[in-house]
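Extended Data, record phosphoglucomutase (alpha-D-glucose-1,6-bisphosphate-dependent)
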Amino acid sequence: MTTHPTTPFDGQKPGTSGLRKKTAVFMQPNFLENFVQATFNAIGGVRGKTLVLGGDGRYFGTDAAQVILKMAAASGAARVIVGQGAWLSTPAASNLIRKRSADGGIILSASHNPGGPNEDFGVKYNMANGGPAPESVTEAIFARTKEITEYAKFDAPDVNLTAIGESHLGAMVVEVVDPVSAYADMMEEIFDFKALRGLFHEGFTMRMDSMCAITGPYAVEILEKRLGAAKGTVVHETPLPDFGGMHPDPNPTWAHELMVEMMGASAPDFGAASDGDGDRNMVLGRGVYVSPSDSLAVIAANAHLVPGYAQGLKGVARSMPTSAAVDRVATALGIDCYETPTGWKFFGNLMDAGRVSLCGEESFGTGSDHVREKDGLWAVLMWLNIIAARGQGVAEILAEHFERFGRNYYSRHDYEALPVDQANAMLNDLRDRLASLKGTQNHGLIVENADEFAYTDPVDGSISVQQGFRILFEGGSRVVLRLSGTGTEGATLRVYLERYVPGPAGLNEDPQEALGPIIRATEEIVGIRARTGRAGPDVIT
Ligand code: G6P
Ligand code: ZN
C-alpha cells in the first residue's frame, strides 16, 4: 500500500448525476484518484465495507475500475463486486447494491453523453438503498476534494476483470460477476415472461436500438434469449468505448435510425431505445411516437396487468415539467400523485417511504421501486407486458387511453448554448413580471396563474426553491420554463408546452399544431426569439 501526496483540483463538484467531465480531464494524473479518495473520506471510509462497481463500457471505464479497486483495497474495503469487463448498467448496479446488501456503489458513466477520448466520462456514488447520493453527501464529497492532501492506492498488477470469479487484492475480495444475470432474473420476477414468450412466438416483431451502449448485452439476453424474439431484434448491441460515434440519447433526434424505421412502411410492431448507461428509454409503435409523459400515464393505467404490480400502485410521482397525463390516471385509480422538481433523486425518498411505486420524467426516464434508478429496459418490458395482456398494439392502446382520460398534448422546445448572461437576464426579468401576468391576455390565452415552483419534500421536509417557472392559462394549458442542469455549453433553456383536450373531439392533432397558441403566447410573454435572436428551438421532443 502506498500513500500518494496530492493537491486539490478545482471543479470536482458532483452534479445531479455524479461528476461529469471531458474524458481527458479525468485522465490527468491524480484527478480520478482525488475524487475517489474524497468520496471514500466523505462516506466515513470504506473499511470493512462491500461496494458494487461497474459502468457503461465507455472509454477509460476499465482503467478507472482498476484504479478504484486498488484504492478500495488500500482503504480496507472487504469486498468489491464488479461487473465482468467493468460493465454494469445503472439500473443493474442499483439492483446489485440492493440484492447483495452492499454499502454503496460506484458507477462509471456519463449517461447519455457521448463517450470516447474527446467526449465525456463520469463517476457517480450510489448509497446502500441503490440510489444516487443525496445532496448532503455530494456536498461532503465536494468539500473533501477541496482539502485533499493524499490518497491511498494498493501497489499491485491489474485485476483480471474478464473472467467471472473471486480473486484477492491484498485482503480485499474482488468478485467479478456476470453483469446481466441478476438483472435479468429480477425482470423475470416482475414480468409475465410466459406471456411475452407467447407474444414473440406468435410473430410479434420488435426493434431495440441499444445505441452501441450498455443495454446491448441485457437486451440480447432478455429479449432474444429468454423471450425468444428473433435474432437481430436488438441492434447496435455491442457496447463500444465511443458508442460507435453515436450520441446514446434515446430521443427522436439522436435515435433517428430507429425513428426512420418505425415511421417507415416495413416498421416492426414495436420499437425502443435506451441510453449510454441504460436508465433512459424511448418507446414507439408502428408509425407512432409515445411521448415520455404519455408513456408514464399509460404504464400507470395498465400496471395492474403486470404480475409485479398486480396488487396495484402505492402512488405515482412525476417531475413538475412532465405533463399531467399521469395525474388523471392517479385520480381515476384513487392514488396519490406527487409533483417533484426535475431529477430522479427526488423520487428516492418517496419510494423508500413506500408512498409511490411508479415514477417518471419527461426527459425519457421511467421506473419503479424495484430499484432506485430509472430503468430503460424495465420500461420496455412494461410496454411489452401491457401489449401482451391487452392484445393490442401501441397505437390502439394510446388511442383508448386518450379516449378515456383525454389527451395532454405535450412538447419540449430546447434553446441550446445560449449566452449564460442573456438566459439569466431573460428569466430574471420574467421572475420580476410573474405576479403581474395574472389576468393578462396573450394571443387569446388568459393567464390564470404564474409562479416559480418550489418543493418541500414530504418525507424529510427539505426545501428546494427556484425549480422552474410555471405559467398556467385558463382552460388547463400551461408552459414551464427552466434552465437545464446538465448542459455543458452555455445555458440551455427548456420550454415545456402542454395543452389538455378532454375529447372526444380533437384527440388526433399534430402536437406542434395543437400547441401553436401556447407557443405564440409564450413568445409574447417571454420574448425568447426576440431576446436571443434565435429563429426557433434547436431540439424538439
Ligand atoms: C438527468 C437526471 C434526470 C433529469 C435530467 C434533467 O438525466 O437523471 O432525472 O430529469 O437530468 O436534465 P436537465 O438537462 O433538464 O436538467
Ligand atoms: Zn442515463
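Summary. DSSP finds 18 helices and 27 strands in the chain.
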